[in-house]
């Protein structure tokens, strides 16, 4: 049924929907390190590029099953993030942001000069050999990533990340190993970015190191700022809106970043927490369920 529904959608709309799905994965990944942990990263596109090229090379060189390619791309990216994160996550604020920005530029330059990535010409990625269509795969991964993000947020690990975000000194005084948790958060965030990059590479069929520059990182950051830092529904909303926006703003593509900037300024003035920041959706759901349960109980008493 799902396949028939996907096939009924025209290719142009399907491309927009897949881009939205990949954007959601990337935004939820960045939300872990920036929204939950409070560490500003301006180089998240670097992890997306690592996942994209890792996935492309695994498909080209090994031809392994696509689900393994997706998983390994995320794991390779997480290992790279952990290796980089251990020294730089001792920094905070602007210093950390500058380091992540510098790392992203280093990754781009390295990929532009490596033979295995075909230098500036980029790589043509073959279509994955799978019985499931790419849009369905992206949908499945989006659902899994949302569930995983919600699990992290409610877990002990997620509570520790929030404590670090709110006050590092207080968190450390309560026995939280700040350095370890930051690196773990960075690795989890990069894992999701690597998965998103792998899906991006195989969906487009071609990747170039120049596609993963500074503006790509700013796009991802704008998604979570727009929706609300630390909010999973906010990240989904922001990613959906900004992933689809380029298609609707084609008539003024040269001024797209101007529109983004004006939107963010408007939010900072009138809605500093983002469109959905500060809203406890779990409490709202519990409240709704509580109302329904009380209504059902009253009906039973009436009978």
Which key phrases capture this entry?
single chain; 303 residues; mainly alpha; ABC transporter involved in vitamin B12 uptake, BtuC; two-stranded antiparallel ribbon; 13 helices; 2 strands; globular
In words, what does this structure look like?
This protein has 303 residues and is mainly alpha-helical. The chain has one domain (2-275): ABC transporter involved in vitamin B12 uptake, BtuC (Orthogonal Bundle), CATH 1.10.3470. It is built from 13 helices and 2 strands. Strands 1-2 form a two-stranded antiparallel sheet.
Shape: globular
Distance between the termini: 41 Å
Q: Enumerate how many helices there are, as a single number.
A: 13
- Tell me the fraction of residues in β-strands, as a range: under 5%
CATH architecture annotation: Orthogonal Bundle
Q: Supply the CATH class.
A: Mainly Alpha
**What is the percent of helical residues?**
over 70%
CATH topology: ABC transporter involved in vitamin B12 uptake, BtuC
Element order: H for helix, E for strand: HHHHHEHHHHEHHHH
The beta-strand count equals 2
Specify the biggest β-sheet: 2 strands, antiparallel
Structural class: mainly alpha
């Amino acid at each position: 049924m799902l396949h028939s529904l996907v096939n009924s959608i025209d290719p142009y709309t399907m491309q927009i929907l897949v881009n939205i799905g990949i954007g959601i994965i990337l935004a939820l990944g960045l939300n872990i390190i920036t929204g939950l942990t409070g560490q500003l990263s301006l180089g998240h596109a670097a992890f997306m590029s690592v996942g994209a090229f890792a996935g492309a090379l695994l498909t080209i060189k090994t031809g392994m099953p696509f689900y393994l390619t997706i998983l390994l791309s995320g794991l390779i990216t997480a290992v790279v993030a952990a290796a980089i994160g251990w020294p730089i996550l001792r920094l905070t604020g602007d210093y950390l942001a500058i380091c992540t920005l510098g790392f992203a530029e280093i990754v781009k330059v390295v990929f532009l000069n490596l033979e295995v990535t075909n230098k500036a010409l980029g790589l043509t990625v073959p279509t994955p050999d799978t019985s499931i269509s790419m849009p369905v795969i992206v949908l499945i991964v989006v659902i899994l990533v949302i569930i995983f993000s919600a699990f992290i947020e409610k877990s002990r690990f997620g509570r520790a990340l929030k404590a670090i975000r709110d006050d590092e000194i207080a968190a450390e005084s309560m026995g939280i190993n700040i350095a370890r948790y930051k690196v773990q958060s960075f690795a989890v965030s990069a894992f999701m970015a690597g998965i998103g990059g792998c899906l991006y590479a195989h969906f487009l069929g071609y990747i170039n190191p120049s596609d993963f520059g500074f503006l790509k990182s700013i796009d991802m950051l704008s998604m979570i700022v727009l929706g609300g830092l630390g909010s999973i529904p906010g990240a989904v909303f922001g990613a959906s809106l900004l992933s689809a926006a380029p298609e609707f703003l084609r008539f003024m593509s040269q001024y797209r970043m101007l529109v983004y900037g004006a939107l963010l300024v408007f939010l900072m003035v009138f809605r500093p927490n983002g469109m959905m920041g500060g809203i406890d959706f779990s409490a709202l759901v519990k409240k709704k369920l509580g109302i329904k349960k009380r209504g059902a109980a009253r009906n039973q008493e009436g009978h």
